[in-house]
Amino acid sequence: MNTKCLIIGSGPAGYTAAIYAARANLAPVLVEGPQLGGQLMITTEVENFPGYPDGVEPFQMMDDLRRQAERFGTQFISSIVTKVDFNCSGSKPAVHRLTLEDGSAIEADTVIIATGASAKFLGIPSEQTYRGRGVSACATCDGFFYRKKTVAVVGGGDTACGEAEYLAGLCEKVYLIVRKPFLRASRIMQDRVLNNPKIEVLFEHNTLQLTGENKVEGADLVYKKGTPEEEIRHIAINGFFLAIGHTPNTALFKDYLALDEEGYIITQGDSQQCFMASDSPIHRFTDSPAPGIFAAGDCADPHYRQAIVAAGSGCKAAIEADRYLKSIK
Question: What is the set of active-site residues?
């Protein structure tokens, strides 16, 4: 199969890229990946995406985006990309070859990577039991549902402190569960958390399990695990927020594209264009753009991780892909 534009990923970035690419007559092909809708599907309701004044369930919103892309001629493939062979030699057009899980191959003049990022979880069974019923990896997405309630945030870095501070503006009380005896966050973030009367920091605590009938109602913690002072404690909470980081789904591209230290794809300003990988295992950055390859959404965004931002970057990637194709005619 050959296509002018191949899109990898079916979240807000991928679907938006498909809408714009299809309307530009690129007849895009979108490989949907392992989870339709991406990271957004782990939340319960979306209330901060424009156009849904009463909120919307993630599945409905993703179905709306998919049908809109399909209306303009996007072709969908229910599969996973298992191998890429990007042509970064500088030849134009640079035809890129991608292999799917069934062994079939697609050749594309342009590729838009929208594979997203996966939230890191603690690994305790009850996290999965209560996903969507009190467990969240995004305070900005779900914090509104816990107004005037008690919640817990897990983590000790800037992200965790930022989430705790945000939730403190909505909730009655916020526990910040930190496994170490100190915060790793920047000094200004530490000061904000430690001086906020709504936030109680639980140093040297680890979460054992979450409890509740049909939703999160509490958490069992262990204090100073493995020491003579070890103690099991219980806190009553309504929500449990993970803030221990995200893993960008970019391992497939590491031999070809420039990634930062955390694995996020480095892009060129507003163009969403990727850079070719250097030989450095640390920064993996060069000044050479990867011809015809663009990245959008959370796989290239370590800061915002919001559906509306991802959608905007998908729009930009598709426009730039169209401009690239026109420039090489």
Answer: 138, 141-142
- pLDDT, one tens digit per residue, over 156-174 is 998 899 999 999 999 999 9
Characterize 239-268 residue by residue with b for buried, 16 or more Cβ atoms within 10 angstroms of its Cβ, and e for exposed: bbbbbbbbebbbebbeebbbbbeebbbbbb
Q: Do 242 and 154 contact (CB within 8 A), yes or no? A: yes
Among candidate residues 187, 42, 209, the one with its CA nearest the CA of residue 119: 42
DSSP code string of 105-150: EEEEEEEEE---EEE-----HHHHHTBTTTEES-HHHHGGGGTTSE
Alpha carbon distance 266, 264 (integer Å): 6
Please tell me whether the overall predicted TM-score, pTM, comes out greater than 0.90 for this model: no
Q: What is the pLDDT confidence band of residue 45, given thresholds at 50, 70 and 90?
A: confident
Number of neighbours of residue 125 by Cβ within 10 angstroms: 9
User: 205 or 246: whose pLDDT is higher?
Assistant: 205
63 φ, ψ (degrees, to nearest 5): -65, -40
Q: Give the start-end residues of each E strand in the chain.
A: 2-8, 29-31, 75-77, 81-85, 96-100, 105-113, 117-119, 135-136, 150-154, 173-178, 199-203, 205-211, 218-223, 231-236, 239-242, 246-248, 267-268, 273-275, 289-295
**What element of type H or E holds 192?**
helix 187-194
Indicate the helix (H) or strand (E) that contains 22.
helix 12-23
Q: DSSP per residue over 211-261, as a string?
A: E-SSS--EEEEEESTTSTT-EEEEEE-SEEEE-S-EEES-GGGTTTB-B-T
Read off the pLDDT of each residue in 186-209 and give the average, rounded to a whole number. Answer: 96
> Does residue 304 sit in helix, strand or coil?
coil
Radius of gyration for the chain, computed over Cα atoms and rounded to the nearest angstrom: 22
Find the length of the chain: 329
